Structures are given as structure tokens and as C-alpha cells.
Amino acid sequence: MTDLPMPQNPAAAQPAQKSSLLSQDDRTRRRNAAEKRFRSYGAAAIGLALAALVVLMITIISAGSGAFRQTYLSIPVALNAEQLDPEGNRDPAEMSKVLTLRYGSVLDSALAAAVENTGIQIEGLSDREIKGLISREAAAQVRNRVLADPELVGQTIELDVLVNGRVDGYFKGRVTMASAARDANTSPEQLMLADALAERGMLVTRFNWNFVTNPDASDQRPEAAGVGVAILGSLYMMLVVLFLAVPIGVAASIYLEEFAPKNRWTDIIEVNISNLAAVPSIVFGILGLAAFINFAGLPQSAPIVGGLVLTLMTLPTIIISTRAALKAVPPSIRDAALGVGASRMQSVFHHVLPLAMPGILTGTIIGLAQALGETAPLLLIGMVAFVREFPGAPPEGLFDPASALPVQVYNWTQRADPAFIERASGAIIVLLVFLLCMNLLAIWLRRRFERRW
Amino acid sequence: MKTAKFTVSALAIVAASAVAAQAREQIQISGSSTVLPYATIVAEAFGENTDYRTPVIESGGTGAGLQKFCEGVGTNTIDIANASRQIREGELAACQGNGVTEIMEVRIGYDGIVFASSANGPDFAFTPADWFNALSAKVVVDGAVADNSATNWSQVNPDLPDQEILAFVPGTKHGTREVFEEKVILAGCEESGALEVFTAELGEDAAHEACMTLRTDGRAVDIDGDYTETLARIDSSPNGIGVFGLAFYENNTDKLSVGTISGVTPSTETIASGEYPVSRPLFIYVKKAHFEQVDGLKEFVEFFVSDDLAGPDGPLAEYGLVSDPELADIQAAVADETVMQ
């Protein structure tokens, strides 16, 4: 079919020649410029996001890394028998009547003696400032040690005690001589004493595992606070979510995707599931309070209730991602299985589900990671609380009060003592590490089990 | 079949929950964020020094705490409500309606409310009348009620520094707000003579109301969060003056400088002697009905008000609580399990 009229006039052929490969016409140039602009917008967007991330990480790490180091003072403590065991019979039951306050005074005299022995002379240093050097946690530490081994009474033991949060802050650069001069809780003289003790090697700042293992502490002892209970609480909740949301979510999606008839009812259910995925999490908290605590009578502040609430919150995410994973398995696999005589259930459980597994696992882990960082629903079920007692081992431990990592961050940002701000950032780092591990696991599982056709 | 196993174990967990609703080993406390630090100090010492478990303490404000407290009696309700003000008639009625009848009111001490500005700014010497004239919606100008148009502290009182008026006051859900309104704004209203003018124009009830209504043009900012939020606001706008609890201020003396009221500097001593006017009692409300059901509840309350903790040399006083001069009476009332009438 070459009956197109050939151009007769060479002048008329001129525009066709213009769009040669060598010289671009206006329109092509405009199109190319638009593409370049679009690419630079994209690069700028990514650059902006990266810059924000870098600023965030730098802020958190610079504020929070201090929580992983802590200053300790090692001093000899003479355990005065008259004060600690007034009856003199070394009976732990009798001795437990002596409160930590009495141990505090034993420590005070030990500290005064230790400072005197070193021969440090600082002008204007008061007894109160010497006493204030160590943490109030130290008294509990000595008491526990003595009650565990009553024979220690009357001896002199070498002890590593935490120092006060302000002095600790001085070694981490949070407190300066200038701020100490205005501060009612420390003084430049106290910091000079701390400096002198550090020179003699009695005061050392070292890595602080206790931050990860200790429970929360009261406002008077920020130096002793840790995220132990919160980690355990978060772990328990994740266990509950894993054991409830995964089976229920996967079963629901298999039924909806493979067995359910496609009619108005399943359409309504589908719309509802998508809707639930976008419901604000606080709504699930209100539901949890009404259904699990007020109606079912479950205890307050317990990881089981937190886990149940987070299960409700995570279910839609898991169902949606599982259905997508099931949909992605080619129909030919099902047809082949049915063709060789498998029942529909066999075709699903032997062929479709294993192939959809990587997608299901990824969706599940992303749902869990989302649940791990959730605070709002926990507010209403009493988990945003000061919890110092470790919950027991599961399953009973699921009913003991516990805290959660994001809750711990929230709690610490409300405390008066500035040392808690460092702790809060430290807890954020721990939470980020957990999330990173979960996401890496998701990527690894996807790589490991992925099938290609 | 794995799915079936999972489902069975999941059901087992749910079924196990039915067992958990009897006696409780751990005390549960909720309420005022002002009382929270004191409660955590006592709880920590209680857990350390006794064989009982450390109580669990939530914060969230006096009103929210008392609401939870009044939900009913039983181990899935809280045992103690922390309060930075006395329980109201309506709350008491709600309690009684839900069967919470035997309530013990325990005063744990006094707390001062202080006015602090950025440590880098000028010092302030306030009177309650200054606060009223600076923050109330209606003031008296030349003997007549007028809208408050003051923009600068020096317009309110020539002795105050020439600084823009910007105050961060606790939001209405805090018990501190009520004390601020009554002991500062209302007192200032009376002191400045504005109350008489208001009463003449509006009648007695409306006059009190008019005194305590704060201006809404952005000079008085309600802070619904905690004192840490107020502190952060002062960091970002150094002209602001914040309302804090004494204990919070004492923990942050390096960042804040405190204003005097009628020439008195707030401290535990001036509050205990009654010289510093803006203080209020702090309470814990205890359900007597839970003494049987919750391990160590009575021991905890006794421990809270013991001389070792709540006394003038105890850790609570060290943190900023003003010890109650009538502590011995309160200890006796707790020992006798005296309930509110």
C-alpha cells in the first residue's frame, strides 16, 4: 500500500527534515527538558527525605548515646553492725525491718571517710554535697546485698555504686560548671570533687548494660532507670499479636480469597476490612477498654490486653497483605493441582499457601513493627504507667502489669529531671534497633523463600 | 494443620484469661501528674523495703484519675487516685452511684505553685493583682469594666520589667489550674478592688466567674501537657512566663528563674510557714473496700504518710513536697481507716 502521494514540492518537505536525529525540534527539546526537571524534582525529594532522616538520627543518637554509658564510684563501705542489725542475731527477717534510709546513712559515712582518705581539699565543699555525690539507688543496692548475705555485716566491702545523675551528666557534657552554679541540685564544688575522684581512678564512666536490663526508676534516681520492663512488655505483646493475629488473619484471607463466593456480602466485608486498616489506633484502645477490661474483666496494665488491642489493630494489615500475596500466586498452579485430582483445600495448603508465604511473612512483620511502635491504644488500658516490677514468665506473666517501649519514651519525656531526656532518647535507640531487626528479618525471609515463575 | 494448632493455642490463652479476675498482688494507682513523682518515690521505696510488689502508677490528671477511681469496686478497678485538689461533689456522687462508698481521703502534704521565666531574662516580683490585671479577660479601667488590652507587664504594674505578656498556664484538666484561678487570679481580683466593681455590675456569682475567666487573645496559653511542655515553650519563646510546681522548678533551677509573690520567694520553708500564698494540699484517695482484696494496700498508705517518707527530712520533702504539719493526725486517721463522710 504505497499509494501515498509523494511530496512534489521540496519546500513542503522542509519540516520533515527539521526533526532529524542530529538537531532536535522545539517540541522534543521541551519534552526532554520536562523529563530532566521531573528527575531533579525526584532527586530533590529523596535528598530532602534523607536530610531529614540524617538530622533525626544525629539528634537522637547524640542525645541518647549517653544513656548507654554510666558513671560509677568504687568505695569501701564499712557495714556497721549496730546500725544494720540492731538485734545482733544476723536474722534476715529481723534485718529486713531496717529500711534503705538507714543504709543511706551508712553509705554517707563511708563516702565521707573515703573522701577524707584521698586527702582531697576543696574549698566550700559541704557534707551535703559529698553525700549528694552518689545515687539514692546505692542504698537499695547495699541493702539487697546484705540481706542476701547477712554475714557481711560488720565487714568492710568494696562497692561499685552509681553516682548522682547531675555528676554523671557532667562527665557526659550535659552539665557544665556554669549551669551547676545556677543549679539547686549540684554545685561547682561537687563537680570539682568528682573531677578529683576521677583523676584517682575511683570514678569511672563505662558501658551501661543496666540501661537495657533495669526497670524504670522514680524521679529521684534517673541514673538507675532502664528499659528492662518495657522491653519485656513489648515482647509479650508481640507474642500475643503473633499468636492471635497471624492464624486469624491468614485463615480469614484464605477463606475470603479462595473459598468465599463473590457476592454483595463479601464485598461489604472487603470494604470494611480496608476501612478498619485506616481507623485511628486510639479507637481500638477505647474498644479494648470496653470489651477486654470492663466486660471480660481482664486486669489493667497487662500485656495480654495490650496484645489483644494491638491484634485488632494489626489484623486488617495482615489480611490485606495476605490476600495480595495469595492473589499473586498464578491461577495455573491452582488449576494444575485441581487437574491432577487435588481437593480445593489440598491445592491451597499444599501449593498456594507455601508459594504465598514470603508475602504473608513480610506483611505480618510489617504489621508487627507497626504494632510495636504504637502508644495511643495503650493509654486507655493502663499501660502508660510507672511499672518497676518485672512480669513473670508467660503464660501467667501476660497478666502481670508491664510497660512498653514507646510508652517508656513518652513517660520519660514528662519527667522533671533533665537526665530523663537522655534516657528517653536512649529508649528510642533501643526501639529503632528492634524495628531495624524486624525489617531486616522481613527482607531476609522474602529473599529466602521467594519463588519466581 | 499448623493453622489449627495455632488457633487452639490462641483460644487457650483467651480461656486462661477467665482465671485472672480474683485477688490482686499489685496496687494500682492513677491520677494527678503533680502527685506522680511523689507516688513513684514512695512506690519504689515500698517495693524495695517490703515483700510486697511495687505499685503500678499511671498519670493523666486529677480529673481523669478520679473518674477511673469512681468506676466501681473490684480488682479490675484502681485502688488509689492521686489528686492535686479535693474531690468535687459531682465526683463523689458519681463514686457513690457506682458503689464506691468507703473512700479514705489522705492528705500527703502541700505543694507550691511558682511562676518562673527563662533564667536569661529579667527577674519578676509579682503580686496576685498583677496576674489578674495581666491575664483576666475583663479588667477595671477608670472604675468601669472593660476588655483587657494590656500587652506589656510594665503597663500592668510600672515596677515590672518592660516585657511582653505571655503566660503558659495549666489547662483546665489539671488540678493546678483551679488553684491558680482561686489563689492567684481571684485573690488578685479582690486585691485590686475589681471584684467590687464586678459585683456591682454583674451580681455576686457572675462576678467570681468574670474574675476567673482568662483572656483568649493568645496572651494566656493553656498547656494541656505536663510541665516539661511548659518548659519547652519557655525555651522557644523566652518572653514567656510559666506556671510550675515547686518540685519541677527545683529540678530545673539552671534554666528557670522564679518570680516572687508579694515579695516572698517560694521554697519549702516559706510554704510550710504559710508566707508564700500560692500552695495547695495534695491528696490520695483510697478505696477501703480494697484493703481485703489487694495485697499490701493499707501498708502502702501507712508507708506513704510515715515520718520516714512524708516527714520534713524524708525523701518527699527533699524532692519538693512541703511536709504536712499535722502528719501525726493523718497517720492516726489512716491507722483507724477513717473514711470520708
TrEMBL record, chain A:
<feature type="compositionally biased region" description="Low complexity">
    <location>
        <begin position="1"/>
        <end position="23"/>
    </location>
</feature>
<keyword id="KW-1133">Transmembrane helix</keyword>
<feature type="transmembrane region" description="Helical">
    <location>
        <begin position="276"/>
        <end position="298"/>
    </location>
</feature>
<keyword id="KW-0472">Membrane</keyword>
<dbReference type="InterPro" id="IPR005672">
    <property type="entry name" value="Phosphate_PstA"/>
</dbReference>
<feature type="transmembrane region" description="Helical">
    <location>
        <begin position="304"/>
        <end position="326"/>
    </location>
</feature>
<keyword id="KW-0812">Transmembrane</keyword>
<dbReference type="InterPro" id="IPR024573">
    <property type="entry name" value="DUF3333"/>
</dbReference>
<keyword id="KW-0813">Transport</keyword>
<feature type="transmembrane region" description="Helical">
    <location>
        <begin position="424"/>
        <end position="445"/>
    </location>
</feature>
<dbReference type="Pfam" id="PF00528">
    <property type="entry name" value="BPD_transp_1"/>
</dbReference>
<feature type="domain" description="ABC transmembrane type-1">
    <location>
        <begin position="231"/>
        <end position="442"/>
    </location>
</feature>
<keyword id="KW-1003">Cell membrane</keyword>
<dbReference type="GO" id="GO:0005886">
    <property type="term" value="C:plasma membrane"/>
</dbReference>
<protein>
    <recommendedName>
        <fullName>Phosphate transport system permease protein PstA</fullName>
    </recommendedName>
</protein>
<dbReference type="Pfam" id="PF11812">
    <property type="entry name" value="DUF3333"/>
</dbReference>
<feature type="transmembrane region" description="Helical">
    <location>
        <begin position="352"/>
        <end position="373"/>
    </location>
</feature>
<feature type="transmembrane region" description="Helical">
    <location>
        <begin position="235"/>
        <end position="256"/>
    </location>
</feature>
<feature type="transmembrane region" description="Helical">
    <location>
        <begin position="38"/>
        <end position="61"/>
    </location>
</feature>
<dbReference type="GO" id="GO:0035435">
    <property type="term" value="P:phosphate ion transmembrane transport"/>
</dbReference>
<dbReference type="InterPro" id="IPR035906">
    <property type="entry name" value="MetI-like_sf"/>
</dbReference>
<feature type="region of interest" description="Disordered">
    <location>
        <begin position="1"/>
        <end position="29"/>
    </location>
</feature>
UniProtKB/TrEMBL annotation, chain B:
<dbReference type="Pfam" id="PF12849">
    <property type="entry name" value="PBP_like_2"/>
</dbReference>
<protein>
    <submittedName>
        <fullName>Phosphonate ABC transporter substrate-binding protein</fullName>
    </submittedName>
</protein>
<feature type="domain" description="PBP">
    <location>
        <begin position="19"/>
        <end position="308"/>
    </location>
</feature>
<dbReference type="InterPro" id="IPR050811">
    <property type="entry name" value="Phosphate_ABC_transporter"/>
</dbReference>
<keyword id="KW-0732">Signal</keyword>
<dbReference type="InterPro" id="IPR024370">
    <property type="entry name" value="PBP_domain"/>
</dbReference>
<feature type="signal peptide">
    <location>
        <begin position="1"/>
        <end position="20"/>
    </location>
</feature>
